[in-house]
Amino acid sequence: MASATPLGTVAWARAGHGRLTAGEQVREAATAAGVLLGTVPERLRRLLGLPNPAAVEVAVEELAIPDSAVATEAEELCRESSSPMLFNHCLRTFAWASILGRRDRLRPDPELLYVAAMLHDLALTDRFRDYAPMPCFGARAGILAFDWTRERGWEEDRSATVADAISLHLNARVRAERGPEAQLLQAGAGLDVIGLRHGDIHPATVRAVLDRYPREHLKRDGVGLFEAESHPGTRAHFLNRRLMFGTLVRLAPFSE
C-alpha cells in the first residue's frame, strides 16, 4: 500500500524507514523514464553541435552567496566534513540551482536554498554517515538539517522545509507544490551529477561555474560513495539497480 505522505519527504521516510514500496518503485520508474526521455532533444543537439537558443547566460559573479550566520556556518560545516570533491559538488549544486531558478522564473529563499545545498550530502561523509538510524542517506541528511537548523534558531516550519528539500533530492522529479527550494536543489544536484538540463545553461556560464568550482574527479570518486549507500529498498538502491545510475554519471557531459 502506498504511503499517504508525499514520496521522498522526511515524514514518508520515517513512516516506511526510507524504503520504497513495490507500487512506489513502479511509479518512480515511470517518472524517471519520462525525465530521461525528455533529455533526448538535448542529447541530439549536443551530438550535432547545435546550440540551445533558450539557454540562459549568467555572470557567475552575480550569483550572490548568502552571508547570514547560519549560511556561513553551513558552508564551514560542509567544508570541514567533506572531501574537496563533495564540497565543490555542493557549491556547484547551489550555482546550478540559482541559474536554473532564473531561467524558470522561480523565487527561492536564497538562504534556505544555500543551506540545503551545503547540507544535502553530509550523510555521505564519515562524520555524519550514522547520524540517524535510517538506511536512506537523503532522509538522514534531511533529519540532520532539521535538527541542525533548529539548534540555530530556525522556526520549525523553516527547518522542515529545508529537511524535505534535502530528502526529496533523490526523487526522479520534484513537483512544484513541494516548493522552489526543493525543486531547484534536485535540479542543481541532478545537473551536476548526471547532466540533467545541462543544455538549459549557456556553455560560457557552464565553463565559468566549473572554473570557479572544479569537479575534482566527481565521476571517478562520486559513484562509489553513492553505491555504498544503495541499501535494499532505498531510492539510492533503486537508482543504481533500475536506472543504471553509475552509467548515467559516467555519461554526463563533463570531462570528470
How would you characterize the overall build of this protein?
- The protein is an all-alpha fold.
- It has one domain (10-251).
- The protein has 13 helices and no strands.
- It has helices at residues 10-16, 22-37, 40-48, 69-81, 84-104, 110-119, 137-151, 156-168, 180-194, 203-212, 218-228, 235-243, 245-251.
- Helix 6 (110-119) crosses helix 9 (180-194) and helix 8 (156-168) runs parallel beside helix 9 (180-194).
- The protein is globular, with a radius of gyration of 17 Å.
- 41% of the residues are buried.
- The mean pLDDT is 96.
What is the domain total for the residues? 1
Q: Would you count the extended β strands for me?
A: 0
Helical content (DSSP H or I, runs of 4+): 55-70%
Give the helix/strand class.
Answer: mainly alpha
- Biggest sheet record: none
**H/E element order:** HHHHHHHHHHHHH
Give average pLDDT, whole number: 96
Distinct helical segment count: 13
Distance between the termini: 41 Å
Which regions have little confidence, pLDDT < 50, spanning 5+ residues?
A: none
Q: What Rg do the Cα atoms give?
A: 17 Å
Strand content: under 5%
